[in-house]
Amino acid sequence: MTAVRMATSDINELTPNKDEAETLMINKMAPILYSMDASSPANAVRMFADIIGLDLELKHIDLTVAEQKLPEFLKINPIGSIPALKDGDFIVSDSHVIMKYLLLKYAAHQVESLYPSNLQTRALVDQAMYFNTGVYFIKLKGVTIPSLFGDCTETPEKSKKDINDCYKQTVLITQPACYINKMAPILYSMDASPPANAVRMFADIIGLDLELKQLDITVAEHKSPEYLKINPIGSIPALKDGDFVVSDSHVIMKYLLSKYAANQVESLYPSDLQTRALVDQAMYFNTGVYFIRLKEVTIPSLFGECTETPEKSKKDINDCYKDLAVKKKEVQPPDLPRNKGRVPPVTSAEVQTALRRSRNRKVIGAD
Asked: Residues 39, 95, 193, 358: which is the catalytic one?
């Protein structure tokens, strides 16, 4: 779950004071959502913010004492409705509008999967949202508002029927659920593969789910006819995104960044010519120098051809680490989010376990 910072319900604190403002600056000015726990529309925004990985600052408005009609709140939202969103100097209300705004501003890389550009598909999404506004929520309010204010203690049978009918209609209008793209890119991988693990960690940094397909190179699954149809080179990792297939971890990471995290390109792969050249230099150093020396140790170990690392190989790898330290100083990496929970981090212990498991496998698919 993303962190949601709760604020007091005191109406005097609707406008952040100096200390709160400084805190918001530290937190990079999280958008403020004026909300109430019992508000379905406000909770929809909160859930949506969690889906796209966005922190919100919550300001609680108590409808039971008409805080939404106080002058302080009406300055923020003249309509006097919740939820309302304040993002810097910009204010907007209505949960559907708020969600679209947050998607376009803070999760541009997820627009195509959540609010597709295809005209007919987007129309179906809009249809569902307007059905919620114009039909379902009106009938729901007929029950929730009286219950909230203590005007009724039992739901009338007609209201129950109206709401149940709405649920049935909701099922019907959301049948074309194919417009929500749930097809995560497929990564053909192996637990003990540093290049594959690099892609997994990178996907975690940009907040992208990957479907993992494990290949066991100790029994040559990467050379099977089925896999060679996907990647004729027979290497791992390889990525299948719809009908598109690409291999090499560095290429895969740049592709995923450009397609699924366009809003992070400037921080991770800057457009400045010299800075980007230094990033490329580090990646090609990994491909052409470091990984070659690492493979001289890992491949024989993986196949049980050696039980001890030669001293020369140790020296070669240590020299690479020294070179990497120098190159790290040339490119100052940005502060990156770690372990968002989408893809678990790979530990050295897990790699060792994978190595031992691979050595013990005799046939494809054996445990």
From this structure: 193
